[in-house]
Write a structure and sequence with these properties.
The complex is a heterotrimer of chains A (383), B (419) and C (308).
Chain A lengths: L17 H21 L2 H26 L7 H20 L15 H5 L15 H25 L4 H21 L1 H4 L10 E2 L2 E2 L3 H27 L1 H11 L1 H6 L4 H27 L9 H14 L4 H21 L1 H18 L3 H21 L13
Antiparallel strand pairs in A: 1-2
Helix pairs in contact in A: 2-8, 2-11, 2-12, 2-13, 3-5, 3-11, 5-11, 8-9, 8-11, 9-11, 12-13, 12-15, 13-14
Chain B lengths: L8 H14 L18 H4 L10 E8 L6 H20 L7 E8 L4 H14 L4 E4 L3 H13 L4 E3 L12 E3 L4 H16 L3 E7 L2 H17 L3 E8 L7 H10 L3 E5 L2 H13 L8 E4 L4 H7 L1 H4 L3 E4 L8 H14 L7 H20 L4 H7 L4 E2 L7 E3 L5 E2 L3 E5 L5 E6 L15
Parallel strand pairs in B: 1-2, 1-3, 3-4, 4-5, 6-7, 6-8, 8-9, 9-10
Antiparallel strand pairs in B: 10-14, 11-12, 12-13, 14-15
Chain C lengths: L6 H36 L6 H21 L8 H23 L8 H23 L15 E3 L5 E3 H23 L1 H11 L1 H6 L4 H23 L11 H14 L4 H21 L2 H18 L12
Antiparallel strand pairs in C: 1-2
The chains are: A mainly alpha (383), B alpha/beta (419), C mainly alpha (308).
Chain lengths: 383, 419, 308
C-alpha cells in the first residue's frame, strides 16, 4: 500500500490538531444541527440508520486503516449487537398480554410457531436492560477476541484473514436462518415496539434516538482518536507498515492486533444495537458477506485512514444509494460498482485524501494568514 | 421538529437542499373545487390520502433490483396491467390511478423505508407490494403504525393476520392439504420425502404437510432435508432419496437451488414420469430457468396455472402478453398480484370511499367473479377463498391441470392441529 | 437407518455416494482452478470470479439458442463450441479487466478485492440489463441428459461424468502449462520475483495479462459446464464465491496440488456429512471445520516455502 512514513514525531502531541478540531466541529455541526433542521422526520430517521453503519466504518478505520487487518466479516458484529438488542426488545414486546392468542403466551411469536414452549435459556437474561446493554458490548468483543487470538497468534493476516472472516459471516448467516425457532430465521426478529416501556416507533422517539445515536458516534470518534494518539495507536501503525520490526522490538503483535479487532467489533455492535432501535427489526441480511463488504466500501470511500472520513463516506454512499435507487434503479449498481473502482484506482485515501490534498492546504494557508503566530505542524503521517 | 426554526437564508438553503435530497415531495394536493366524475373528493377522502378530483395515488413496492428481482418482476407487471385496465375502464370512484413505484432492492429495511415513504410522503391510498415474507414482516409494522393498506400477492406460510394487509395468495394449508389429499387418493402416495430450502416458508409448509401425512393420511415421512438458500449440490440427497424409496418427493426448494435440484434429479436418472414429485415452489416462472425438459412430469400444487381454461383467464393472458411481450409466462403469484388492484377497486367502490378503515371494513365478503383463476372471495381474516389445483409440468413449460378442488378452500392462517 | 436394506442395496448406494463425492470434487476443482491461478499465482483477490463464470454460462445459453434455431443438425455437438467460446469470452474480458484495472493494483492486494467487488456489481447489472432479471434455461443436447445404468441399482449421471472428464482435461492442461511450458516457467518466475523476472527479459506485463486471462477463461469454462447442474442468472455467480475462495485458501494459495487436495477433502467431507446428517448442518459443519483448520494451519494444506 502506498503511504508516507512519519517524517517527524511531534513531541508535543496534542489530542487533536487544529484542523482536526475543525473537522470535528464540522461533523458535529452537520449531524447535530444542519441535518435535523433540514430534513423531515422520515429522512432524518434514514440518516440515523446510515449513521449506525458509520460505527462499523469507524471500526474498520481502526483495524484496517491503522492496524492493516481487513475484516470482511464486520456484519457478524453489527448483527450480534443488533440481535442482542432485538432479543431484549422482542421479549418486551412479547408480554403475556400482547401474545395471549399464542399457544404459549409470553414467548416471542416465532418461537410459538416453531413449537417451542419455553423460553430458551440463552434468551432468559435478556429480560434485563442492563444485562442486554452489557451483552451488546461484551459478547461481540469476546467473539472477536476468540477469533483474533486464534488467528493472529498464528500470524494469519492480510488476504487470508479477510477470507476467513468472510467464511465466518457465511456460517453465522446459515446458522441464524436455519435455527429459526431461536433466532426468527430469515425474517429476523421483527415488530419491536418499546424500550423499557418507551415506544420507539413514534417520530419523537426516532428523533431522540437519532441524537443519542449521533452522540454515541461522536463519543466513539473521540475514543478512537484517543487510541490513535496513544502509544498503542502508534504501535498499530508501526505494525501495519513493518510488522516484523515491531515484533523484534519485543512487542506482542498478536495482542495489539486482537485489541484493534475487538475495538472494531465493539463499535460495530454499538452500531448494530442502534440500528435495531431505530429501524425496529433485525434480520440475517445484515450479517452476511454482502453487507460486510459494503461497509468496507463506506470506510474506503471515506478514506481508510480517517476517522471523520468514515462517517462522511457512509453518509455519501448511502445518500447516493437512496437517491439513485429511487430515480434510476437500473443504473444504481453501475454507479455503485463504478464508485468502488474509482475510489480504489484514483482516490485510495477516499474523501479524506481529497480533502487533505486539495482543501486543507488552502484552508491552512488562510488560517496562517489570519493568525501568523502558531506554527501548525503539518505532519500528515499519522492521519 | 425543527420546522419553523430556519428562516431567511436558511430556509432558502433548506429548500435547495430539500430539492436535491428528497425531490420536492408532493404536497399541495388539497382540492379546491370538485369537477370529478365521481363523488366529491372531500367525501371519499377524509384522512388526507393523495386523492384529487381526477387522480388517486397507489404505490407499487417490489424489488426491481437485487436477487429477488427475478421473482418480483412478474408481480410488478401484473399490478401495472391491472391498474392500466382499471384506468381504461374509468378508474376508481371516477379517479384515475396514479402509480408511484418504489424499489425494495431485495433489502428488507429498504422495504420498510420505502413503505414509510409511500405512506408518509406520498399518502398512497393503497400499496401493492412485498414478495418475500421477510420483506412483508419488515414493512408490516409500518403499515400498522401509519394505517396503510397493503395487498400482498405471494403464497406464504400463514401465521399472520393484520388489519392492514390483504393476502391475495394462499396461506400454507390452502396450498398443501388438497394437493396431499389428491396425491394420496389418486397416486397412492403413502410415503413422503420432504426436501426444502432452509427458511421459514418451507419449514412451516413441511410441518403442516407432515402433520397431515401422519395424522390424516396415515402415511409416513421417510426423510426431511433442508439446504441453505443458494445451495447448488444435491447429489447426496438424491442418493438418500434413492435409498429411502419414497412414493412421493415433496419439494419446496426455491431460487437458484431449484434449478440445480431438478437438473441433478434428472441427471441422476430419477424419471419424473415414474417417481411422483409434488412441489409447491414451481410455477411457470421457475420453469423458465429450470428448463421444461428437466421437470416435465412433476406435479405442482398452486391455485392458478396459465393454462386454466376459462374466458377470464384467456383475456387476462392475452392482455398480459400484449403488454409485456409474447414470451412472458404467468405464474401463480403473478395472477395473485393481478387480483390486488381489482380487489381494492371493488372495496373502494363498495365503501364509497378511499379511507383505509372504510375500505377494510367493506372488504370481507367481496366477490371477484371475473378473476383469471375463477371466482374468489375475501374472508374476514383478509385471505382469499380460492380453489387448489394440481398441474402436471409439460416439456413446453406449461402445466396440464389434472385436479381442481371442487369447492373453494377456506383460508386458515392459524390452522388448529397443524402447529 | 440401514436396518431395512439388503447388502446389495447398501453397496449400490455407497457406490453412487462415492460418485456423488467425486462429482462434487470435480465441480469444486473446476470452480477453484481459475481462482487458484489468479489468487494463488498473482495474489489478486478476484471477487468477480463468479461473474466470469456466469459469463461463460451466458455464452453457452446464447450458443444453445443459436444452434437450436440456426443449425439444429449440429446441436448435439454445440456444447464443445460453447465451452470454447466461453473460454474466449471470459478470457478476453479478463485481459481487458487486467489492463484497465488490475495492473494498477498489484502492490495493493486488498484493494483488488474492493475493485473487483465493484466490477462484480457492474457485471451483474450488465447481465440483468442484457439477459433480463430472470434465470435462463439452457437446453442441453440429449446425450448429456440422464444416467448410465452400471448395474441394476447403480446409476451414474452422465453430466456428472462429463464434468469429471472436463475437470481432468483442464487440470492436466493447466498443470502441463504451468510446469512444463515456457509460459509456465515465466509465470512462476514472475510470481516468485517480479523485478528479477523483468530483469532477465520476461515481459512481466504480458505474462500478468495472459495469466489473468487464463484464470478468467477457465472460470468461463467452469460456468459453461455448470449450466448442466446449476442455475444461470445475473446473481448466480455469487453462490460460488465463498466456497471457491475457501478451497483455494485451504489448499495453500500458491499450490495447484494444494487446491486439488483441498477440493477433495472438502467435497468428501461435505458429501459424506450431507448423506448422514441434513443439508444445512452438513454445510455449517464443513465450513466450521475448514475455518477451524485454517486457524490452526493458516498456510493451508500445501505451501511454497518462501522467505518473507
Amino acid at each position: 500500500m502506498t503511504r508516507s512514513t512519519p517524517k517527524t514525531i511531534v513531541n508535543d502531541n496534542p489530542f487533536m490538531k487544529p484542523m482536526e478540531w475543525v473537522s470535528l466541529a464540522l461533523l458535529v455541526g452537520v449531524i447535530f444541527i444542519l441535518l435535523p433542521m433540514l430534513l423531515d422526520a422520515f429522512r432524518l430517521n434514514l440518516v440515523g440508520k446510515y449513521l449506525t453503519y458509520s460505527f462499523v466504518a469507524l471500526g474498520l478505520v481502526i483495524c484496517w486503516g491503522f492496524g492493516g487487518i481487513l475484516s470482511l466479516g464486520q456484519g457478524v458484529f453489527f448483527g450480534l449487537g443488533g440481535y442482542l438488542m432485538a432479543m431484549y426488545l422482542k421479549l418486551e414486546a412479547s408480554s403475556v398480554e400482547n401474545t395471549k392468542i399464542q399457544s404459549t403466551p409470553g414467548i416471542p411469536d416465532f418461537m410459538d410457531w416453531n413449537q417451542i414452549t419455553e423460553l430458551p435459556w440463552f434468551w432468559k437474561p435478556f429480560t434485563s436492560l442492563p444485562f442486554t446493554l452489557i451483552a451488546v458490548l461484551v459478547v461481540p468483543a469476546f467473539f472477536a477476541f476468540v477469533i483474533g487470538t486464534a488467528m493472529f497468534r498464528r500470524r494469519v493476516g492480510g488476504t487470508y484473514f479477510a477470507i476467513i472472516t468472510q467464511a465466518i459471516a457465511a456460517i453465522l448467516t446459515i446458522l441464524i436462518v436455519g435455527q429459526q425457532g431461536y433466532t426468527g430465521g430469515i425474517n429476523g426478529i421483527t415488530d419491536l415496539r418499546t424500550l423499557h416501556g418507551w415506544d420507539i416507533r413514534t417520530d419523537s422517539a426516532h428523533n431522540i434516538l437519532y441524537f443519542v445515536n449521533a452522540g454515541l458516534l461522536v463519543a466513539c470518534i473521540l475514543f478512537a482518536q484517543a487510541v490513535k494518539k496513544s502509544k498503542l495507536g502508534r504501535i498499530l501503525l508501526a505494525m501495519r507498515d513493518k510488522e516484523d520490526r515491531v515484533r523484534f522490538s519485543g512487542y506482542q503483535v498478536a495482542s495489539f492486533k486482537t485489541f484493534a479487532f475487538c475495538l472494531a467489533a465493539v463499535f460495530a455492535a454499538i452500531g448494530g444495537a442502534m440500528f435495531t432501535l431505530q429501524v425496529g427489526f433485525m434480520s440475517p441480511s445484515f450479517v452476511g458477506i454482502v453487507p460486510s463488504i459494503e461497509m468496507v466500501i463506506y470506510a474506503a470511500v471515506g478514506g481508510r485512514l480517517s476517522l471523520f472520513g468514515a462517517v462522511w463516506g457512509t453518509l455519501l454512499v448511502n445518500w447516493a444509494k437512496t437517491t439513485f435507487s429511487e430515480s434510476f434503479p437500473e443504473l444504481w449498481l453501475f454507479g455503485l460498482g463504478g464508485l468502488f473502482i474509482l475510489v480504489v484506482l484514483a482516490f485510495p485515501n477516499g474523501l479524506a485524501g481529497i480533502y487533505r490534498t486539495y482543501v486543507e492546504p488552502r484552508l491552512t494557508r488562510r488560517v496562517k494568514a489570519l493568525e501568523p503566530a502558531p506554527a501548525v505542524a503539518l505532519s500528515h503521517a499519522a492521519e | 421538529m425543527a420546522e419553523d426554526k430556519g428562516k431567511g437564508l436558511q430556509s432558502a438553503l433548506r429548500r435547495r437542499l430539500l430539492m436535491g435530497l428528497a425531490g420536492a415531495p408532493a404536497i399541495a394536493l388539497m382540492p379546491r373545487m370538485s369537477f370529478a366524475a365521481g363523488p366529491a373528493t372531500s367525501a371519499v377522502n377524509t384522512t388526507g390520502l393523495a386523492v384529487t378530483d381526477t387522480e388517486v395515488t397507489v404505490g407499487i413496492l417490489h424489488s426491481a433490483t437485487g436477487t429477488m428481482a427475478i421473482s418480483e418482476t412478474g408481480s410488478i407487471q401484473a399490478e401495472k396491467l391491472a391498474i392500466s385496465q382499471i384506468n381504461e375502464a374509468g378508474g376508481v370512484l371516477g379517479r384515475k390511478i396514479k402509480i408511484i413505484q418504489e424499489d425494495g432492492a431485495s433489502d428488507w429495511p429498504t422495504f420498510a423505508e420505502k413503505a414509510k415513504k409511500l405512506l408518509v410522503n406520498d399518502h398512497c391510498a393503497a400499496v401493492m407490494g412485498c414478495w418475500t415474507s421477510a420483506s412483508r414482516k419488515a414493512a408490516l409494522p409500518v403499515f400498522e403504525q401509519y394505517n396503510g393498506l397493503l395487498y400482498y400477492p405471494t403464497f406464504y406460510e400463514g401465521l399472520e393476520q393484520s388489519k392492514n394487509v390483504f393476502y391475495t395468495g394462499q396461506e400454507a394449508t390452502q396450498q398443501i392439504l388438497a394437493g396431499l389429499n389428491w396425491v394420496h387418493k389418486e397416486k397412492g402416495g403413502d410415503s413422503f420425502f420432504f426436501i426444502g430450502s432452509d427458511y421459514i416458508w418451507p419449514r412451516t409448509s413441511n410441518k403442516i404437510a407432515r402433520k397431515h401425512v401422519e395424522n390424516v393420511l396415515k402415511g409416513k415421512v421417510v426423510g426431511e432435508e433442508y439446504f441453505p438458500l443458494g445451495h447448488t449440490q444435491f447429489n447426496s440427497v438424491i442418493n438418500k432419496i434413492k435409498l429411502t424409496k419414497p412414493k412421493v418427493i415433496f419439494a419446496d426448494v426455491v431460487g437458484g437451488s431449484n434449478v440445480a435440484f431438478y437438473k441433478q434429479l434428472k441427471a441422476a436418472g430419477i424419471d419424473l414420469s415414474k417417481q411422483i414429485l409434488l412441489t409447491i415452489s414451481v410455477t411457470e416462472d421457475e420453469i423458465d430457468g429450470i428448463g421444461g425438459d428437466n421437470i416435465a412430469g412433476a406435479y405442482s400444487c398452486m391455485k392458478y396455472f396459465q393454462s386454466i381454461e376459462n374466458e377470464n383467464n384467456k383475456a387476462f393472458v392475452a392482455a398480459f402478453k400484449k403488454m409485456w411481450g409474447e414470451k412472458t409466462v404467468i405464474g401463480d403469484v403473478t395472477q395473485a398480484a393481478y387480483l390486488g388492484p381489482h380487489l381494492w377497486k371493488m372495496a373502494c367502490e363498495k365503501a364509497g370511499s378511499f379511507d383505509v378503515d372504510k375500505v377494510v371494513a367493506a372488504s370481507p365478503g367481496l366477490e371477484y367473479k371475473d378473476a383469471p383463476e375463477g371466482y374468489v372471495r375475501v374472508d374476514p381474516n383478509h385471505h382469499l377463498w380460492s380453489k387448489t389445483r394440481v398441474g402436471k409440468a409439460l416439456p413446453d413449460g406449461q402445466f396440464e391441470i389434472v385436479y381442481t378442488s371442487p369447492e373453494l378452500i377456506k383460508p386458515d392462517p392459524f390452522p388448529k392441529g397443524y402447529q | 437407518m440401514f436396518g431395512d436394506y439388503s447388502l446389495g442395496d447398501l453397496g449400490a448406494i455407497f457406490a453412487m455416494q462415492g460418485f456423488a463425492g467425486l462429482i462434487l470434487f470435480s465441480v469444486y476443482v473446476l470452480m477453484a482452478l481459475g481462482l487458484a491461478i489468479i489468487f494463488g499465482q498473482m495474489g489478486v483477490i478476484n471477487m468477480a470470479h463468479g461473474e466470469f463464470m456466469i459469463l461463460g454460462a451466458y455464452m453457452t445459453y446464447l450458443c444453445s439458442n443459436f444452434f437450436q434455431t440456426q443449425l439444429p443438425a449440429l446441436f448435439p455437438a454445440y456444447f464443445f463450441i460453447a465451452m470454447a467460446l466461453a473460454f474466449l469470452a471470459s478470457g478476453a474480458l479478463g485481459m481487458l479487466v487486467e489492463w484497465a484495472l488490475i495492473r494498477h493494483l498489484y502492490k495493493r492486494p486488498l484493494d483488488t478485492l474492493l475493485a473487483t467487488w465493484g466490477l462484480s456489481l457492474i457485471l451483474q447489472q450488465a447481465y440483468r440489463s442484457i439477459f433480463g432479471a430472470r434465470e435462463v434455461g439452457v437446453e442441453l443436447p440429449s446425450w448429456l441428459i440422464g444416467s448410465v445404468q452400471v448395474t441394476d441399482t447403480i446409476e451414474i449421471p452422465i453430466n456428472g461424468m462429463f464434468v469429471m472428464a472436463i475437470t481432468t482435461l483442464i487440470t492436466v492442461g493447466v498443470a502441463l502449462l504451468m510446469y512444463r511450458s515456457r509460459f509456465g516457467a515465466q509465470v512462476r518466475a514472475v510470481v516468485q520475483n517480479r523485478a528479477m523476472a523483468g530483469a532477465v527479459g520476461i515481459d512481466t506485463e504480458r505474462v500478468d495479462r495472459l495469466t489473468f486471462g487464463l484464470g478468467c477463461g477457465i472460470a468461463g469454462i467452469a460456468g459453461s459446464a455448470f449450466t448442466m447442474v446449476g442455475s444461470t442468472g445475473p446473481t448466480s455467480g455469487q453462490l460460488y464465491i465463498v466456497d471457491t475462495f475457501l478451497i483455494v485458501v485451504f489448499g495453500g494459495a500458491a499450490s495447484l496440488l494444494g487446491t486439488i487436495a483441498s477440493a477433495f477433502s472438502i467435497s468428501q467431507t461435505q458429501s459424506t456429512l450431507e448423506f448422514f446428517l441434513s443439508g444445512s448442518t452438513a454445510k455449517v459443519l464443513t465450513l466450521l471445520a475448514v475455518v477451524g483448520i485454517l486457524m490452526l494451519r493458516p498456510q493451508g494444506l500445501f505451501t511454497l516455502k518462501v522467505r518473507r
